């Protein structure tokens, strides 16, 4: 992993994709799919871990589950002022007010279950091929 400087002079490790999902089986299978496609991937099991990881790593794209206990995907999006491209995943659709609130921060939304190719295509559209973030 390469290191990049931040405005404050701190070094943050670079990673292609951060996968955030409270369901371990989903999170690990999505992460493995992206690793197999050649991307460097970190995982977080909840919104708090995601925010910590985003503070310590330069992330090319964020695959973010919508509904999680504690800090959910919407709260993560509300917290971020300049997020990387966000691929929002959920078995649920956003309510109209939720959609308006986060529309400008979402690159694409995938409804679970989604085809693995759709996820890889979404990441490639967001950041390019592996290692190009």
Word description of this protein:
The chain is an alpha/beta fold. It has one domain (12-126): Response regulator (Rossmann fold, 3-Layer(aba) Sandwich). It contains five helices and six strands, in the order ββαβαβαβαβα. It has helices at 24-36, 47-56, 73-79, 96-102, 116-127; strands at 3-5, 11-20, 41-44, 57-65, 86-90, 108-111. Strands 1, 2, 3, 4, 5 and 6 form a six-stranded mixed β-sheet that branches. Helix 1 (24-36) links the parallel strand 2 and strand 3. Helix 2 (47-56) runs parallel beside helix 3 (73-79). The chain is globular and about 35 Å long. Residues 1-9 have low confidence and may be disordered.
Give a short overview.
This protein has 133 residues and is α/β, with parallel strands linked by helices. Helix content is 37%, strand content 26%.
DSSP strand content: 25-35%
What would the average pLDDT be, to the nearest integer? 87
Q: Kindly, what is the distance between the CA atoms of the first and last residues, rounded to a whole number of angstroms? A: 12 Å
- Per CATH, the class reads Alpha Beta
The CATH superfamily appears as Response regulator
Contiguous runs where pLDDT drops below 50 for at least 5 residues? 1-9
Shape: globular
* Strand and helix order: EEHEHEHEHEH
Biggest sheet layout: 6 strands, mixed
- Oligomeric status: single chain
Give helix % range: 25-40%
Number of helices: 5
What is the strand tally? 6
How many domains, in number, for the residues? 1
The CATH topology: Rossmann fold
Structural class: alpha/beta
Radius of gyration: 14 Å
CATH architecture: 3-Layer(aba) Sandwich
């Amino acid at each position: 992993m390469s290191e990049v400087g931040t405005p404050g002079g701190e070094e943050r490790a670079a990673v292609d994709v951060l996968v955030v999902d409270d369901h371990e089986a989903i999170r690990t299978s999505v992460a493995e799919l992206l690793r197999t496609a050649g991307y460097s991937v970190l995982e977080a099991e909840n919104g708090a871990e995601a925010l910590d990881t985003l503070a310590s790593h330069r992330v090319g794209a964020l695959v973010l589950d919508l509904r999680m206990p504690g800090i959910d995907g919407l709260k993560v999006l509300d917290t971020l002022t300049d997020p990387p491209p966000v691929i929002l995943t959920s078995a649920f659709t956003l309510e109209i007010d939720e959609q308006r609130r986060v529309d400008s921060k979402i690159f694409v939304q995938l409804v679970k279950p989604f085809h693995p190719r759709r996820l890889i295509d979404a990441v490639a559209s967001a950041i390019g091929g592996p290692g190009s973030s």
